[in-house]
Every structure is written in C-alpha cells, then in structure tokens.
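Section 5.1 Outputs to date
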Amino acid sequence: SLPIVMDNLSCGGYDFSSCDFATEHNCGHSEDVVLRCGSMPPPKPTFYLVDRNGDNSSENYGSPPKPTFYFVDRNGDNSNDNYGLLIATYQDGDSGTVCDDGFTTTNAIAICQEMGFEEFEDASWESSDGNSMADQSSLDGSFMEEQSSLAIVPIVMDNLSCGGYNFSSCNFSTEHNCGHSEDVVLRCGPIIHPTFTLLDRNNNIASENYGLLIVTYPDGTAGTVCDDGFTTTNAIAICQEMGFEEFEDASWESDGSFMEEQSSLPIVMDNLSCGGYDFSSCDFATEHNCGHSEDVVLRCGSMPPPKPTFYFVDRNGDNSNDNYGLLIATYQDGDSGTVCDDGFTTTNAIAICREMGFEEFEEASWESDGNSMADQSSLPIVMDNLSCGGYDFSSCSFSTEHNCGHSEDVVLRCGP
C-alpha cells in the first residue's frame, strides 16, 4: 500500500549532499531497498537434545562421553603395568575395547597421559597378535581368552583422532565397524627388552661366544628359546643386543641335548621375528608349542677352527711317550680319533711334531698303517685333508669330516 517515492539514487560520496535522485519511478515493490546500518552479528542458535526416539530430551545424554582407560593382562585381569589390552569405560558403565581404525602414536600418547603415566611420550601400540592370550576367541583378537565374545567384551570406541597430546583434543565414535583383531594393545612407556645369556655344556655362563641361548624377562622369568621361525637375522639381532663385536657373523643351530639340565628349563620364547639387526625390530611370543629339541644354540661371531692336541698310542693302544706311534687328534669338545692321510705331507708331519713339542721336529716322517694297534678299527677318524702352509700348526687347515678307512691312518715319527 506504500508508494514508491525515490528512484535512480546516485551518490558521489559518503555525504548525502553529494546525491541525486528522481521522485518518479518505474519500479515494483520487489525492488524496495532493505538497509542494515552496522556490522551483521552472527546468528544466535538455540540447542536442545533429542533421545533415541526423536523426542525432546531433558537428560544430558547428548554431551560427549568422557571415558576412563585401563589395561587388562593376558589373563583378563586388570593390570598395573604400563602395557596391556586397552579398555575404555564410559560414565554410563559401557566398557570394552578400542578399535585401531585411524589410531596413531599421537592417540596413544594422549591416552597414556590421560591414564597418568609419566613416560607417556614413549607410548607405542599394536593391534592384535593372534596368540596373546589363552581364550582369545573373545578382546586384541587374541590378547586374552574372553576377548572376542562381544557379550563379554564389546568394542566401544572407534575412529579416535587426537589433535594433540591432551585427551581433550580427541574425537571418537562409540559406534564401530571392527573385529577384535583390531583391538588396540597399548604400551605407556619405553619397551623393556629381555636380556640374553649363553650357557656352556656344564650349565655355566659361557666364556666363549657359543652356547645354549637363555632369555630372561624383567619379571625374572628365564628359559630357552624355541627355533620356530628363527633366522640368521634373529641371531644377529640377539648377538648385537648381547654386545658381541662380530655379531654379523652370527650362526645358530638347534640342539636338545646341549647340556644335562636342559630338559628341566622352561621354554619362554617362540616365533621370534626380527625386521633387522636391532632387537627393537623384533616381535616374539612368550607362549610356545615346542620341545627342547628345538632349543636354539647360538654362536655370536665367526667360528674358530677347532684347536686339536695330538698324542701317540703304541701297538697296545696305550699312550706313548716315545716319538713314534699312531697319531691321535683330540678336540676341545672331547672328540678324539685318528688322522687320515688324504693330502698328508712331510710339511704336515713337521708342523704336528713341532706342535707336540718335539725338538727334532724337522726330521719328522710318516706312513699309513691300518694295523698299528689291536683295536684301531674301533677308533673314529676325526681329521682329514690336512694342509699346512708351513711348519707352524697355525698355518694348517683341515676337515673334521672324512671319506677314509683305517688303512689310511697316519703313523708319525717326530725325529730321526
């Protein structure tokens, strides 16, 4: 009903005295000007909550759930350690595992700080290992026995995303699309490695770089290591962890009868897998399905050649103090027997006689004889293909394997 009384307004500046206009128009009211004199304030919303039925709610249920966290160990018990299956509990009592979708080290640090751990910045995490606990059909897929039974332990957190190390920066969902194999296992602090030692055949700490491998955990549990999945990389990682300089020459074997008391020791490590030569790259299980025949015997360095000693036996099979007799070689591990003449030379004879301490070693001579003593055929042959580069036995190489008969046994004379 209002008339339109101004049209074609044109102002040359911010003062109305600079403006021209017409009082006639050719407009409709759809072109009427609406004016705001000042900045536009943001819209002021109001909020309310609706319940699951879509009705207005008088409860505070719509506020973000504030969870608390704790660990359970492999037996399903609450754990006071800095490691375990991560459990989230909400104020309404809902409790369960945390899915690894989108999980990061930042998330791990934020949760560890929220739980009160001092070394939260060293936090690390993993997903289920498939064998971590006895009845794992039910929380990291296999961390503990009841884990996968959703009626017992549901998954209550997913898609956690933390913008910093304080949990107040984190967002998450209470809905999930996960299985328990994705459950987060968290460590709130540095990893404490097990320690390793080598035992000799007398059950003493080995003085050499070779022995039965024993692992000891921080809680004092100690025992042997099973060879399932064991590799040279694993051997090198352990030897480096033990401080051996020649760790890259590490080698290993399995031996169930390395020492007498071996069968009484527990087997405490299995399925060791190292991604590199540093033990921090290794994963393993503390459960096993092994027998002691699979115990790892480790050598941390190059294998020194066996250092034999030599002596003579006479025709009666008795040790001889003369400078002549059937030559017997004895190794440090107790193996003892005759020496085969394959490749044997006067240089070899001189080197052995000198090694035995004979003064007139340069006049050494030798022969082969399969009937030098009565029970000669009952002796093992323990040295073959002896080759000496000079008159010092350190210049000699040989094989402990042979393809000989006793007719090739060396009989040696160390002097004229």
